[in-house]
């Protein structure tokens, strides 16, 4: 039956530090989410219960009774949904530990306390989902956090997804540490790591991230991309989040583009810092100019360019695509 719903309601789950919730989009944009199980710390699920909760939401969506948090969400689409409720879209986001201290991060105010937290284990839950036919063979997982590479389970998680499924792995990494699993997954064309430098210079990077490791990160990006063919190279995302007052000046954007050029990166991603946008609700004129500059660069250098959540809200939806990497 065809009705307005979304991939997460139908086939998704997102794990945060104290709950299993329905989707990630509401996490990013509204800082709230529909909870499937509250006070959750990695206990094995009663999958029938999970299916019943998901079914309740599916029934609501089928009757066009869209929960307020989902209203207007760009993920909504009219489709004939499969109805199997297997987990196909997963967000793993249940830890907050990270080596950086980005000024825009939700962890910024409680950095020390959050870095001391000991994350619960997600892998037994995924293995149990597989055993109970609740994990789809195909799909997408987004491993975000916190910093994935410092999660103890990270190598085992990567091994699990690569060996037991054909799920594509998206990873947000600061690249302060190098992971051979990320490199291996890129080689297999099974992962797309995104690195948000947000700066073209060491000074600005340090101002934004509060840690002086610009060079280390750039060296790790070089290691990730070394010897890759253009298709695999284009899986590594270079992101720039415009943070008014910090990196929204021509020199910085030019320095970032120079670095992108020197490194030979071809997957560019732009975003506007979400706290600033929530407060101000407009896109500054100078940022529009810098976006145009990046667009021009992308065309001249035959790069892919995409926009992230806030910029799509501001109307930047047209992706530039020169390299077909199957994503
Ligand atoms: S409609 Fe949007 S906010 Fe609601 S569950 Fe789906 S992705 Fe999340
Ligand atoms: S790299 Fe990510 S998780 Fe780490 S502090 Fe920055 S925004 Fe937060």
Task: Provide a brief overview of the structure.
By secondary structure, the protein is α/β, with parallel strands linked by helices.
Description:
The chain is α/β, with parallel strands linked by helices. Helices cover 39% and strands 19% of the residues. The protein is built from 14 helices and twelve strands. It has a ten-stranded mixed sheet with strand order 4-3-2-6-7-8-9-10-11-12. The mean pLDDT is 95. One iron/sulfur cluster is lined by residues 98, 100-102, 105, 107, 145-147, 174.
Q: What is the CA-CA span between the terminal residues?
A: 28 Å
Principal-axes shape call: globular
Q: How many β-strand runs?
A: 12
Helicity range:
25-40%
State the secondary-structure class.
alpha/beta
What radius of gyration results from the CA coordinates? 20 Å
Task: Itemize the secondary structure elements and their pairings.
Layout: E1 2-5, H1 7-11, E2 12-16, E3 19-21, H2 25-30, E4 35-38, H3 47-62, E5 77-80, E6 87-93, H4 111-115, H5 123-131, E7 135-143, H6 154-164, E8 168-172, H7 180-187, E9 191-196, H8 202-209, H9 214-225, H10 230-233, E10 237-242, H11 250-263, E11 267-272, H12 274-280, H13 285-300, E12 304-307, H14 309-313
Parallel strand pairs: 2-6, 6-7, 7-8, 8-9, 9-10, 10-11, 11-12
Antiparallel strand pairs: 1-5, 2-3, 3-4
């Amino acid at each position: 039956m065809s009705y307005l719903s979304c991939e997460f309601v139908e086939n998704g789950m997102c794990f945060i530090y104290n709950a299993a919730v329905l989707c990630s989009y509401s996490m990013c944009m509204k800082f709230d989410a529909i909870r499937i199980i509250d006070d959750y710390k990695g206990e094995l699920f009663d999958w029938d219960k999970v299916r019943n909760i998901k079914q309740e939401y599916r029934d609501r969506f089928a009757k066009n009774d869209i929960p307020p948090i989902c209203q207007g969400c760009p993920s909504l689409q009219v489709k004939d949904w499969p109805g199997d409720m297997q987990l196909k879209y997963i967000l793993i986001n249940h830890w907050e530990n990270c080596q950086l201290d980005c000024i825009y991060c939700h962890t910024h105010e409680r950095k020390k306390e959050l870095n001391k937290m000991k994350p619960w284990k997600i892998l037994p839950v995924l293995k149990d989902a597989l055993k109970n036919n609740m994990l789809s063979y195909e799909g997408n997982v987004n491993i975000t956090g916190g910093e994935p590479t410092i999660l103890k389970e990270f190598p085992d998680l990567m091994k699990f997804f690569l060996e037991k499924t054909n799920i594509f792995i998206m990873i947000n990494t600061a690249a302060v540490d190098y992971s051979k699993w990320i490199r291996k997954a890129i080689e297999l064309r099974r992962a797309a790591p995104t690195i948000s430098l947000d700066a073209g210079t060491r000074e600005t990077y340090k101002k934004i991230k509060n840690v002086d490791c610009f060079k280390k990160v750039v060296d790790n990006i070089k290691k990730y991309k070394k010897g890759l063919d253009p298709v695999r190279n284009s899986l590594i995302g270079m992101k720039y989040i415009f943070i008014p007052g910090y990196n929204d000046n021509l020199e910085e954007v030019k320095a970032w583009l120079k670095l992108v050029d020197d490194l030979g990166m071809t997957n560019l991603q732009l975003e506007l810092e979400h706290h600033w946008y929530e407060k101000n609700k407009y896109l500054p004129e100078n940022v529009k100019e810098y976006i145009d500059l990046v667009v021009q660069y992308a065309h001249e250098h035959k790069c892919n360019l995409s926009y992230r959540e806030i910029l799509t809200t501001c109307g930047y939806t047209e992706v530039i695509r020169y390299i077909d990497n199957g994503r």
